[in-house]
Specification:
five-stranded antiparallel beta sheet, alpha+beta, 13 helices, 16 strands, Chorismate synthase, AroC fold, about 450 residues
C-alpha cells in the first residue's frame, strides 16, 4: 500500500486498521522547540471518536494517544526546561485500539464473504486478495481518520503560532442546511463547542485532568494504564456528566450534539437525521472549513495549486466532493457575479466578495479560505441490500448487523479541519522558504 503518505515539506505517513492493535501517524517537518502533550492531541481526537452521542456508532474506542517519538524524554541539560519539547526528529503518535472484542470480530467474519454496498470491501478484496484486512474494513474504516486528526492537531498548533487559524463546522445534515456564518462567529463557536466536549468527556477528565497519565511517564507506564482502561471503558463512560441541552446552551452557547453555529438548524438536523435512522437508513451532509490569516501568495502552481491540494480531502473516507468558495454554484453565475472585486481602503486591499474561497490561480488571496465537503450517508445500514459472495459470485442478500453511525457528518468535521491544517502547513513551509530565498538573491 503506497498511498498512505501526504506532504512534501511537512510529511505525514499513517498506518494501522480498525481491528489491528492500533493506528500510527508519523510526522516529519515538525520544528524543534514546541511543547506538545498527549492531552492536547486527545482534545481533538475526542471530537471524532465514536460513541459520543446518539448520531454516532456505539463503538467505545477512547482514542487515547501515545507520543512515541519526537519529544525530548528529559531536559537536554539540567534545568533547560525543554523536556517534552519537540526535538526536530520524526514525531510518532500511536492510537491503540482498546474496544475490539471477539463478538464484533465474529460479526465481520460472518459477513465478510458478502461485501457491504457502499464500502471498499469488494474492490479491496480484488486488489489485495483473501488476506485483505476485512475485519472492520481495516484501513478503509473511518477509524483511520484518527491518524489525520492527531497529525493535523500538531500542524494546527504550529499554524496558530504563525497567525493562521483553522476551524470547521457542520453546514448540512439530512437536507437541513444552516445559514451563512461569518468567519469570526464560526471560529468562536467552534472553540466553545470543543471546550464543552472536553468538559463532558469522561476520559479527558479522568485520564488527563485527574493525572492518570502524565507527560512524565515512560512508555511502558502509559501502556500499563491503557491496559487497565481497556477493562474499565464502561465504568469510565458511566462517569460522564448527564447531558442537559438547556444548561449546555446557557453555559457554552452551543448545541449539545451538533457543531453548527445555527442552533435552530442544529436541532432540525438532529431531528431529520433521527427520522432517517429510525428506518434503518443513514444520512449525509456538508462540512465547511474556514482558515484565516493565510498569507497572500501561499500555494505552488501548477500541479500543486492550493485549491488542488485541498482537493486531496477526497482522500477522507465518505467525502465525495470538495468545493472551494462558491464551488459548483459558479456555473449559474456570470463573470461579473463571480468575480471578487477589490479596492484599496486605508492602505489595505479589500475584496467585495469571496466567491473564490480565498484562492485564485492556485494562490491564497489573503481572504479567508473557505472549503466545503460533501459527505455521503453512512454505507453500513440496517436495511436489506443486494450483494454477492465474493468467493463464489453467487447473488446474496445482506442486512447490516455491525455497529453503525446514523450519520458520519458529525465525525468528519474535525478530520476536515485537521486535514486542511496539514495542507496549509506543508505549503507554508515552502512559502516561507521561497520568500526567504527571494530576499537572499535580491540585488543589494
Amino acid at each position: 500500500m503506497m498511498g498512505c503518505h501526504l506532504g512534501r515539506c511537512f510529511q505525514v505517513t499513517v498506518a494501522g486498521g480498525s481491528y489491528q492493535p492500533g493506528l500510527t501517524a508519523v510526522l516529519q517537518g515538525v520544528p524543534a522547540g514546541m511543547l506538545l502533550t498527549e492531552q492536547e492531541i486527545y482534545g481533538d481526537l475526542l471530537l471524532r471518536k465514536p460513541g459520543a452521542d446518539e448520531l454516532s456508532s456505539p463503538r467505545k474506542e477512547p482514542d487515547l494517544p501515545i507520543i512515541y517519538t519526537g519529544l525530548n524524554a528529559a531536559d537536554t541539560v539540567e534545568g533547560a526546561g525543554n523536556r517534552n519539547h519537540t526535538n526536530g526528529t520524526p514525531l510518532t503518535v500511536l492510537i491503540p485500539n482498546l474496544d475490539r472484542h471477539f463478538i464484533h470480530i465474529k460479526q465481520y467474519q460472518d459477513t465478510n464473504r458478502t461485501p457491504r454496498p457502499g464500502h471498499a470491501s469488494y474492490a479491496s478484496f480484488i486488489k489485495y486478495g483473501p488476506d485483505d484486512d476485512a475485519i472492520g474494513a481495516g484501513i478503509f474504516s473511518g477509524r483511520y481518520t484518527s491518524t489525520i486528526v492527531a497529525a493535523g492537531y500538531v500542524a494546527k498548533k504550529i499554524l496558530k503560532l504563525c497567525g493562521i487559524e483553522v476551524c470547521s463546522y457542520i453546514r448540512e445534515i439530512a437536507g437541513v442546511r444552516c445559514d451563512d456564518v461569518d468567519c469570526d462567529t464560526a471560529l468562536k463557536y467552534t472553540d466553545a463547542y470543543k471546550q464543552m466536549r472536553r468538559d463532558y468527556d469522561p476520559f479527558y477528565q479522568e485520564v488527563y485532568i485527574d493525572g492518570r497519565i502524565t507527560p512524565e511517564m515512560r512508555l511502558l507506564e502509559k501502556i500499563s494504564i491503557l491496559a487497565e482502561i481497556e477493562k474499565q471503558i464502561d465504568e469510565i463512560r458511566a462517569k460522564a456528566p448527564k447531558i442537559d441541552a438547556a444548561k449546555i446552551r446557557d453555559k457554552y452557547g452551543v448545541h449539545h450534539i451538533v457543531n453548527c453555529p445555527d442552533l435552530a438548524a442544529a436541532d432540525a438536523m438532529v431531528e431529520a437525521c433521527m427520522k432517517v435512522s429510525a428506518t434503518g437508513d443513514s444520512a449525509g451532509g456538508v462540512v465547511e472549513v474556514v482558515a484565516t490569516g493565510v498569507p497572500t501568495g501561499l500555494g505552488e502552481p501548477v500541479f500543486n495549486k492550493l485549491d488542488a491540494e485541498l482537493g486531496r480531502m477526497l482522500g477522507i473516507g465518505a467525502v465525495k466532493g470538495v468545493e472551494v468558495g462558491a464551488g459548483f454554484a459558479v456555473k449559474d453565475m456570470t463573470g461579473v457575479q463571480s468575480n471578487d472585486e477589490l479596492h484599496s481602503e486605508g492602505g489595505k486591499v479589500v475584496f467585495g466578495s469571496n466567491n473564490a474561497g480565498g484562492i485564485t490561480g492556485g494562490l491564497a488571496t489573503g481572504q479567508p479560505i473557505v472549503v466545503r465537503l460533501a459527505i455521503k450517508p453512512t454505507p453500513t445500514i440496517d436495511k436489506p441490500q443486494e450483494t454477492i459472495d465474493k468467493y463464489t459470485l453467487e447473488n446474496k442478500a445482506l442486512a447490516a448487523i455491525t455497529r453503525r453511525d446514523a450519520t458520519i457528518v458529525g465525525r468528519i468535521w474535525p478530520v476536515a479541519e485537521n486535514f486542511t491544517a496539514l495542507v496549509l502547513l506543508d505549503n507554508l513551509i515552502a512559502h516561507f522558504g521561497y520568500q526567504t530565498l527571494m530576499e537572499k538573491v535580491k540585488p543589494a
